[in-house]
Amino acid sequence: MCSYLIKYGACQTLSAKAAAALDKELMSTGAFSIDQLMELAGLSVSQAVFRVHPPSLGRRILIACGPGNNGGDGLVAARHLYHYGYAPTIYYPKQSSNELYQRLSKQLRDLDIPFVDDFIEAEKSSDHIVDAIFGFSFSGEVREPFPAVIRALEETTRPVTSVDAPSSWNIESGPPESGPGSKFMPAVLISLTAPKPLVKHFQGRHFVGGRFVSPTIAKKYDFDVPDYQGLDQVAEIPSGNQKL
Amino acid sequence: MCSYLIKYGACQTLSAKAAAALDKELMSTGAFSIDQLMELAGLSVSQAVFRVHPPSLGRRILIACGPGNNGGDGLVAARHLYHYGYAPTIYYPKQSSNELYQRLSKQLRDLDIPFVDDFIEAEKSSDHIVDAIFGFSFSGEVREPFPAVIRALEETTRPVTSVDAPSSWNIESGPPESGPGSKFMPAVLISLTAPKPLVKHFQGRHFVGGRFVSPTIAKKYDFDVPDYQGLDQVAEIPSGNQKL
């Protein structure tokens, strides 16, 4: 059991504002590049997926990528998953002109990983889904074309792994009261660096990824580094009041 | 067993020239950044070290870093090793002004990892050594201050893991006929992307790291991708005519 429960009766969390400040600090005084951080984030996502759904349970994995960094984490995860033996398919409807995302996409195309336009259709022939649409910087409304995707994620019978946040959820207060996402509960959540306040509302399997944070940074932002084991880039921690 | 032995009676290898061309291709049409590749290389080094010498066998690990990319791989490995529970010490006498290496060093300093000036002294209080001095671009003479370090690596009773090449070895023809390195035989070698011709002369445990290479690239450069297992970023393969 992680020490989160001991301290707070629930996981110690990082607000959206604190998460943004931490990211900024890692990339300034922390001297990390975004390439490095995204590689490590995507690697940890791929490890959480493997732990819960090893390729023997189904190789066809559909990865929905949003327009920002959360989508970039999904692109990196897709590459690692391919190398673990999965057959990924990418849904990436709002491809950024950002050079980093372009490069991550090219790396996938060089592996002949298909990019598809129709999420609803692709969902039918997948074994498992990764939701890398919105992360900690999401707020407000879900914009087109994502409302239909969020509804499909609500209704799918396939297990869904969300990256950092179930997409459409408010980072502080959790699921929206109505509309797309109000009934969305992914099977798995991987919190990057530290859990966000929305985890109070999450009831599935919960992982934390981010085995690069210095004790100084963790102390400054007042969160606990989980007990990573062996070579793992992820650690499973309790969800809400659940004990492992 | 990997398919190397079947094909060639020894590992299929990549010449220094081909390795340089491959690196260039990965970073141009392959769309990888050097940050990404170095992160993945250092990660695979850290995994090979963990496999052979888990922290329970001794946490004090001395990492000798050269002035180029091999040294950069060592710096990345040091960070991961710290997070696995090791107590790394860095010997990095020719610190480059290259911005990437500066950032990787800063990441280590933020973890309070010591940088030392005296390799010989530091060797005495280490349990294990990583040789990240010279990689596939090495040729010619070992320059100061490294001859004494290479001699210490030859004489140490601590196990040494070499990154991509035992430092001082010629990439094609192996150990030098005389002088520093002529008797150097590390316990472990981790070949990055693919083994170099020098592996014919290597007799320790041999790993390959580089679980990001596309089948197209492997085919073009005519090497086999080893059978990586599970989430591993490294695969152990036979040394010379040894079978696993």
Automatic annotation (TrEMBL), chains A, B:
* SUPFAM superfamilies in alphabetical order: YjeF N-terminal domain-like
Q: Which cofactors are required for activity?
A: K(+)
Q: Which InterPro entries match?
A: YjeF_N_dom (IPR004443), YjeF_N_dom_sf (IPR036652), YJEFN_prot_NAXE-like (IPR032976)
User: Any idea which positions bind (6S)-NADPHX?
Assistant: 69-73, 135-141, 164
| Subcellular location(s) per record | Cytoplasm; Mitochondrion
Q: Where does K(+) bind?
A: 70, 131, 167
Q: What class of enzyme is it?
A: isomerase
Recite the UniProt keywords alphabetically.
Answer: Cytoplasm, Isomerase, Metal-binding, Mitochondrion, NAD, NADP, Nucleotide-binding, Potassium
Cofactor binding mode, per the note? Answer: Binds 1 potassium ion per subunit.
Q: Which GO terms describe its molecular function?
A: metal ion binding; NAD(P)HX epimerase activity; nucleotide binding
Q: Start and end of every YjeF N-terminal domain?
A: 19-224
UniProt keyword Transcription present: no
Kindly indicate whether the keyword S-adenosyl-L-methionine belongs to this entry.
no
Highest taxon listed in the record's lineage: Eukaryota
Reaction catalysed by this chain?
A: (6R)-NADPHX = (6S)-NADPHX; (6R)-NADHX = (6S)-NADHX
Please give an example of a GO cellular component term from this record.
mitochondrion
Q: Which EC number(s) does the record attach to this protein?
A: 5.1.99.6
Summarize the protein's role: Catalyzes the epimerization of the S- and R-forms of NAD(P)HX, a damaged form of NAD(P)H that is a result of enzymatic or heat-dependent hydration. This is a prerequisite for the S-specific NAD(P)H-hydrate dehydratase to allow the repair of both epimers of NAD(P)HX.
List, alphabetically, the HAMAP family matched. NADHX_epimerase
Protein family membership: Belongs to the NnrE/AIBP family.
Q: Which PANTHER family does the record match to this protein?
A: NAD(P)H-HYDRATE EPIMERASE
Q: What is this protein called?
A: NAD(P)H-hydrate epimerase
Q: What is the organism of origin for this protein?
A: Microdochium trichocladiopsis
